[in-house]
Specification:
The structure is a single chain. It is built from 2 helices and 8 strands; from the N terminus they run E-H-E-E-E-E-H-E-E-E. By secondary structure, it is an alpha+beta fold. The protein has 2 domains: about 55 residues, Roll (2,3-Dihydroxybiphenyl 1,2-Dioxygenase, domain 1), CATH 3.10.180.10; about 55 residues, 2,3-Dihydroxybiphenyl 1,2-Dioxygenase, domain 1 (Roll), CATH 3.10.180.
C-alpha cells in the first residue's frame, strides 16, 4: 500500500505517549528505518516519523502515567465528512476535544475534529485538502 492509497476511514496517523521520548526516539529511528520511515519532525517533545509523503507515526511525552492516551486519526474524504463525524459524536454525547476547524500548525489544509472514546482515548477525523 502506498501513501497515495490511503482513503476515507483509513488510519491517517497514530500517536503514542511514552515515558522517555529520547529513548523511544532512538528505538523507533532504528526500528522504522527499514520500513521507509525516518525522523521528520521534532520540537524537543513531539517526534514525527515520515516517508516522502506523510507522517503516520508520532511519539510524545505521556500526559498521564497509569492510563496513557492513545491517539487514532482516521482519514476523512472531505471537510463535510469531518463535520458529520462531529455531529455523530454529539449524537452519542462523546466528549468533544476540538470541534471541526483548520489546524494550520499541523499543515496546510489540515481540517479536523477530535473527540474522546469511552476509554478516554483521543480519536480524530482529518481531511487534508491542500
Amino acid at each position: 500500500m502506498t501513501m497515495n492509497s490511503i482513503g476515507p476511514g483509513m488510519i491517517d496517523h497514530v500517536s503514542l505517549q511514552v515515558s522517555d521520548v529520547g529513548r523511544s526516539r532512538a528505538f523507533y529511528e532504528t526500528l522504522l528505518s527499514p520500513l521507509g520511515l525516518s525522523l521528520a519532525y521534532t520540537d524537543g517533545e513531539a517526534v514525527g516519523f515520515a516517508n516522502e509523503k506523510h507522517a503516520p507515526f508520532w511519539i510524545l511525552p505521556a500526559d498521564r502515567n497509569a492510563d496513557r492516551e492513545l491517539h487514532l486519526a482516521f482519514s476523512a474524504a472531505s471537510r463535510e465528512a469531518v463535520a458529520q463525524f462531529h455531529e455523530a459524536a454529539l449524537a452519542i454525547a462523546a466528549e468533544i476535544l476540538h470541534a471541526p476547524r483548520l489546524f494550520p500548525e499541523f499543515g496546510p489544509g489540515y481540517f479536523a475534529c477530535f473527540v474522546r472514546d469511552p476509554d478516554r482515548h483521543n480519536v480524530e477525523a482529518v481531511c487534508r485538502d491542500i
